[in-house]
Structures are given as structure tokens and as C-alpha cells.
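Standup, Tuesday
Yesterday: got the pipeline producing C-alpha cells again.
Today: sanity-check two examples.
Blockers: none.

Example 1:
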Amino acid sequence: MPAPSIPKKSALIATDDIPRDTDFGGLKLLRYQTDDAARSQYANSAYEFQHESAKRHEISGVTLALKGAKSRYRLVAMMHPSLRQFIDIVKYDPARPPLEDYDAMSMQEAHDQTQADFKNQKLKNLDDFKHYNVEALRGERVAYLPPISGWQSKAVFEDVIFVAFDESNPLALYGTLYLPKKPVMQSDGQTQTGALFATAATGVAIKDGGLDTFTVTLEIELNVDKQQAAQSFADRNGRGSKKNKNLVARYDTSSALANLREGAIDGTVFASRLADGRTTGTSETATTNIVDLSTIEQMLLNAAAGGRFKPEHIKHYEVDTLLPFLKDFLSMLDRLFSADWPEKTPEDGEPFRRIWLHGWAFALKAIALAYYDSRKHELAPICDAIAGSLKDEHQSPEEARAAFLEAVDAAPGGPAPDITRAELEERLAAIDWHRYRQHWIDITGAKVDRKTSSVKRRTLKSGEVVIEGKAENTPTTIANVRTKILSDSWTDLTGSANA
């Protein structure tokens, strides 16, 4: 058999000479179907990358699609690899990551966060998913696995090449992807990924051919930087879902509420003391953070709209209108309470949440609702305009902004508040906020010692014995606190008698 004819290195078309396609984010793209020259050269193995198998995976049967809106398309490759191909392509096992220079690939933060996340219950879940896969390999069940969503760093995008065999859909090309042999991080499906790596190491997968017959669906977003990766997580987990709310808020940098939050907390005590679900929390004895990100966002929604809207209802063009109110709200809390929220507890003192009711989420949410009531004559028309904008579909952000501002200007004034903004601050300053005072125990109730079924008491470092009040973050408790602050009998909250 004669030796195959292999082009000489000097005759090969350099990878750098492959044209970049502006429609596909600057990707090096060969249009095999419509470019006669590219088709001939590729068929004759005339390209340098065709002889660099050590650098790239050659993945056939890939759909390369432009996802999302035209103004900001995402470049996503969808494939259906076998289990063997999956672990070879992804490389990044979240339970046992490979040794790579993640910093050089702009993946360091994602890698660090993954390793912080992948333990405890998440690691236990991996074993359950692995057994599910093994049962499917043994024929005991049908494997219904969701697609694994991953991303590869912008730092290696230079080396990605796609050969399009079918261009009939200009937004979704079909062909072969030449993907750099670098890790693929997970934006969704982290536990499933770890379970697939664990499944690949089992005897049933290795001995019975499961590595080559068990298939999964993998989508890889290309040309991603760390900020886009974080936003991807936030958007995938933050729409209508209640899990990971603090982590979602931390990673969410593009939503209007995130921008509103950052503007409102600037210059206040909250700016550096928000828990994100990964740092110190907001328990009774934790003092580093005042509230978590989920709570501050609920406070802002309560103060701006009386809790009328969800986070996704606030739009970017509404931020400038709402921001002055919310900066005023948080600045008021700063003036009134920041001295009572020391970041480090004095040696002879108690953690501030053990002492002060206003250190708890339910109280701050109630105060936020009271703030809205004190300015509802100004805020209600704005909220009506926001509600109206949810029903309209404008062609551009400029049109949407103009329509919103026009609706605000045209709206009649809202209902007169029961108390003014100044009166609210005067009341909040006059109230005794020690959580063990009789007036607060009457509203929140007292903790009960489970062993004795009697009211729970605590001896403070001062020697004072007090009843421990509940701190239930429930709609009923929040509503009761708000109502009392705004009521004619609010002076009941100024007493100094302990329960």
C-alpha cells in the first residue's frame, strides 16, 4: 500500500490566515458549503489546523448558533458527545479539577468559586446522580439528562475554528468544531458534570462499552469573559427561582435592580456589609454584614413600590427616577442605626442583632414599607408608570424611556400619606428598638425553650436577664411592624419596659 500524500508544512494554509467571520463574533470560520476554495482546500487537508490534533478536539455533528437578541448575540456550540468524548472535551471535573493555569485563561474566579461550592450537600448529590447514570447503563431506567451548559474562555477563542457544511439557516450552522483542548467551565449542570465524570470511572461504563454508547447533550458558549460567565449564572438561576438568591444577586451585574442597588448603597453603611451567601452570614451572632443581598433588594422594592414588583419588573430606564428615593431611604437608615451596627462587637457588648430589632431583615423590610407609605404621593404615580410599561413592547430603549417618563409626568398625584417623610424619621428615632422590650414581644412573640416549654430567657453580659424575642421574617410579622409604626398608637413603641 503506497504511503499517503501529506502536504509539506510550508505548503499548509496557516491558521492565522483563516478569515474571521464578523457575523459570528470574529470566529475563524470556513464555509465549506458555499466557498468553493475553502471546500477544496479542506478536502485536501491543506489547512495547518487539520494537522494539529494535539491542540484541538475535532468534534463532528455540531450546531453553531447565534443565541439571543441580535444586538448582543451569544455564540453557542451544541453537540451530543459520548461519555468518553464528554470527559475528554470538558476536562473540568468540578469534584476533581485538572491542574491548569486558570488565571492565564481568565477562569481563576470561576474555578475558585466552583471549588468553594462543590462540597457538603452538593458533593453528596453527585453520588445520587452517578447511581442514576449507572442504573441507566445497566438498562434499569431511561436516562433523562438535561443539557450541560458550559463556557470556554475568551483567552482561547483565537484557536477555535468551525467548518460549516450546512448554512441553510444563517443563524445556526452545522458542521465540525475544532475546539482548543482547554477546560470547559459549567454555567449550569455542575453537579451533573461531576456525576458524569464519576460515571465514566465505574466498571459498568468501562467494561460494558458505556463510555462510547452513553451519550449526553453539551452546549458550550464561546468567547466568554469572567463577567459574562457570572452573568450567565445569574440569569439562568435568577428568573422565577428562589434558590441561590444571594449568589444570583452577587453575580448579577446587568439587571436594572442590581444597578439601582449599587447606586443606592454607595456612601452608606451597607456598601461593604452585604452578605452574598459565600461570606459571613446574617445570623444572630454574625456582625460583619448587616443584611444579605436578597434582603437589600427586597428592602429597595418595598421602599420604592410597596413590594408591588418583582426584581425583573424594574427596567434600566427607570433607575434614574427611582434612585434619589432609594438613596434617601438608605441614608436615613445609615443616620439612624449605623452606630448600633458595629462590625466588631465590643468585648463588654453583645452582637447587635441580639440587642436591636432593627438589625433583622423583617424589621428593615417593614421600615421600607413604611417609607413607601410616607412618600406614596410621589412614588405611586411612578409605580403606575412602571406597571404600564410591563404591558408595552417598544422598539428601542429610547422609546421605552420616553414613554415611561411621559407616563410619570401625565400621572395624577398619588394618595396623601398618613405621615410625612420627616415624621417617619422622627418616629423611627424616638422608638426604642431593643428587641426584648415589652412592646416588641407583644408584636413578634417570644422564643420558647423546647426543653421546658417556657419562655426563653438570656443573661446579657451586662447581667441583665431578658426574654428573647422572635425574629421571624414572615409577611405577617413584617406587616404588623409596619402597621404599628404608621399607626396613631406608635408611641407604644417608645416605652422602656422589658417583657
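Example 2:
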Amino acid sequence: MSTVLRLTKQRRAVLDIVVSASDHPTAAEIMERLQDRGQRFAYGTVYNSLKFLTTAGLVREVQVGDGGAAHYDGRTDEHSHIICSRCQAIDEFDWPQRDVMIEYAKAQTRFEVRDASLVFEGLCPTCQADASHGQEGM
């Protein structure tokens, strides 16, 4: 039995923003981008749309740090993220030997692995440059 997803006008608009984004916008940033396009939806509508789209597997939620705002990713294939610990910028990279690491985890723990993510943290190129410029006067 196949499930038919009901993409309302609001859900489609939110999905379009996330899929077309070159970054990983937060719900607030998605709201701003919708408004820039002349589309005005209530915050609740945007949050509910994001929850629906995430549950349906059409977008991915990316958590940044402890309790930080969730970011949304239109790329749903298996990949990993790297997050700038200074400005919270997020980038993506492919995870080589992912299957090997999953099998290793299963063998060590006897868990049934249902999902796997790998997140790195560091300084993005912009913050690295800012940090090196700040040290010139020392």
C-alpha cells in the first residue's frame, strides 16, 4: 500500500525554500525567505510544515550544538555535516566507508542500527580568517 503525501500550498512553499537553499536555514530564516517571496504564513504553519516534511523524509533536520535552533537540509541522501563552532555555519561532506563503520558499531554493541550520522565541529574558512586577522596586532 503506497502512501500519498498531501503537499499543501504551504508545505510546498516551505519545501521549495529548503530544497533550493545553498545553506541549512532555520525555521526563522525560512519564514524570512517566504516573506521575501511575498508568501506570508503563520509561524505555526511553517513549523508544522517542517515537522511534516521531516517525518515524510523530504527534508532532514540538523541539530546544531546543545539546544540550538534546528536547521533544515533539502539533501536527504546519506551524508554528514561539519558545523562552525563560532558562527554555526553548516557544510556537508560525503562519509567514506559508512557501511564499514555501521557494521563495526553493530558488531561491538549488537544494536540494530537504524540511522547513523557523523557531525564534525571546527572553524569555517571565514572564521579562520577572522581569527588570524585578530592575532596580527598581538
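Quick observation on example 2: The domain at 1-76 is CATH 1.10.10.10 (Arc Repressor Mutant, subunit A). The mean pLDDT is 89.
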